[in-house]
Design goal:
- By secondary structure, the chain is mainly beta.
- The protein is 0% helix and 55% strand.
- It starts with 21 loop residues before the first strand and ends with a strand.
């Protein structure tokens, strides 16, 4: 019983897991002890499918040649349904894969160890990723992550000591290599 002019607040939890994605209408009814409906109010809520995205990655980071780089990726499920699937990252023509299982709103970190050869060229490298969810109705997501390897940066200069030679002359060929 609620006295006139008073307010009562009640929180109810509705489990959206297992409901089909799309709009759903729920009706809240205030019913008397005698079973008479005193008031009712419809509430419409959009149930979102699983939506897994990459929220952080090694993009823009630098790693030294000759080390073991740890590439850290963080996935998040922005939907209302759980999601399971596969995360794939390919760099240097080598695919790396890990499975994931994310509840609605949850995040998960995936770490790949990447051995970098000591003689790898210094430059920005591009890796491609794919997020393939096999449950929860999530769409496949693809993208690219660029990172820098601080490796070798060789410059090679070659020269001869003369522009032209006569028969019997000895040519002096010089090669200069700079890292």
């Amino acid at each position: 019983i609620l006295p006139a002019g008073q307010t009562s607040h009640h929180d109810l939890e509705v489990d959206l897991i297992g409901q089909t994605p799309g709009p759903h209408t729920y009706v809240v009814r205030l019913v008397s002890e005698a079973g008479v409906v005193l008031s009712e109010s419809p509430i419409t809520r959009e149930v979102r499918p699983a939506q897994v995205t990459l929220v952080s990655s090694p993009a823009g980071q630098s790693f030294d040649a000759g080390t073991l780089a740890e590439l850290r990726f963080r996935l998040r499920n922005h939907g209302d349904q759980p999601a399971t699937g596969l995360f794939r990252f390919e760099v240097f023509d080598e695919p790396r894969e890990a499975s994931f299982s994310l509840s609605p709103g949850a995040e998960s970190e995936i770490v790949f160890e990447l051995p970098l050869d000591p003689d790898v060229e210094q430059k920005v490298y591009a890796g491609r990723y794919l997020i393939a969810a096999d449950s929860g109705g999530a769409a496949t997501v693809t993208g690219q992550v660029n990172f820098t390897v601080n490796g070798i940066a060789l410059t090679v200069d070659a020269s001869l000591d003369k522009d032209a030679y006569a028969e019997g002359d000895t040519a002096h060929f010089t090669v200069s290599v700079t890292n």
